[in-house]
């Protein structure tokens, strides 16, 4: 369970970084729709190959709900990433873990003492990794608003997708349905935006979009894989632990932004990243 949750954080962190880079060159809504459409095609092939459609039941409505909420949250998140800095936006959005953790606690799940300590240390580190938010810090209020709105949406998606299946094949089908709904919701918004005259293609038009296809495919597939490993982790262990470990993705995004974009981490952010890792070790020891 610990390994799956950590893989989730790695995949989400890389997907966040890739999506953030793309939204600096492409309209955010186009990135959402294109990446999710490519992921839906890949998942459709998996569903056909495995015969996963036989797993269809009423639980798929959870996947439908996740598919409607997801694009809205993702669009807000990509707007925040485009405004940057990524090393601040990603930790704020990762507070989404509070939603499934809160639900799990309400439903009676009780982590052990070391895991409780790990939850507090890791979650505090994640928030601290976002850097100081006081007046004068290089983070716009609009950026913070987008990131926190995305956090609520992502948290709802995490809770919903964890309820959408009880088997591996059922998970494939649930993720496919979620992506189809993502594309339908995002596509409708893209159509409305186009009719209102908003740009839906980047400078350079379709040629630029075609050149971005490999990156869009990576973002879409990494996001899908992360949803899958998260759902499997939740099925194997406490939601409180799985969600907290999966929420370490900002550390991955911050490291990628530091290595590729040369974004500097403040002392508070570096301390937060260290606390997040320490909290992970405490959670794993429980």
Automatic annotation (TrEMBL):
**This chain belongs to which protein, by name?**
DMT family transporter
- Cellular component per GO? membrane
Signal peptide start-end: none
Question: Which keywords does this Swiss-Prot/TrEMBL entry list?
Answer: Membrane, Transmembrane, Transmembrane helix
Transmembrane is among the record's keywords? yes
Among its keywords, does the record have Transferase?
no
Q: Which family does it belong to?
A: Belongs to the EamA transporter family.
Q: Which residues form the EamA domain?
A: 2-129, 154-283
One short Pfam name that applies is: EamA
For this protein, the parts annotated as crossing the membrane are 28-53, 60-81, 112-131, 143-162, 168-192, 213-233, 239-261
């Amino acid at each position: 369970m610990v390994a799956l949750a950590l893989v989730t954080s790695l995949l989400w962190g890389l997907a966040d970084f890739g999506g953030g880079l793309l939204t600096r060159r492409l309209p955010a809504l186009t990135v959402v729709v294109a990446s999710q459409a490519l992921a839906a095609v890949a998942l459709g092939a998996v569903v056909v190959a495995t015969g996963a459609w036989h797993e269809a039941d009423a639980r798929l409505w959870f996947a439908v709900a996740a598919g409607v909420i997801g694009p809205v949250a993702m669009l807000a998140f990509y707007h925040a990433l485009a405004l940057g800095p990524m090393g601040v936006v990603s930790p704020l959005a990762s507070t989404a873990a509070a939603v499934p953790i809160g639900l799990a606690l309400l439903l009676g799940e009780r982590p052990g003492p070391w895991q409780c300590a790990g939850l507090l240390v890791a979650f505090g580190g994640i928030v601290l990794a976002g850097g100081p938010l006081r007046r004068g810090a290089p983070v716009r209020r609009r950026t913070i608003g987008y990131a926190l709105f995305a956090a609520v949406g992502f948290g709802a998606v995490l809770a919903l997708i964890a309820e959408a299946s009880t088997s591996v094949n059922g998970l494939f089908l649930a993720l496919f349905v979620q992506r189809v709904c993502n594309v339908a919701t995002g596509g409708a918004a893209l159509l409305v935006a186009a009719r209102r005259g908003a740009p839906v293609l980047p400078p350079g038009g379709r040629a630029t979009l075609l050149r971005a296809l490999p990156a869009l495919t990576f973002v879409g597939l990494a996001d899908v894989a992360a949803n899958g490993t998260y759902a499997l982790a939740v099925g194997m262990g406490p939601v409180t632990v799985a969600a907290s470990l999966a929420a370490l993705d900002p550390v991955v995004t911050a490291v990628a932004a530091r290595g590729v974009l040369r974004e500097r981490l403040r002392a508070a952010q570096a301390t937060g990243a260290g606390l997040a890792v320490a909290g992970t070790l405490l959670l794993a020891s429980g």
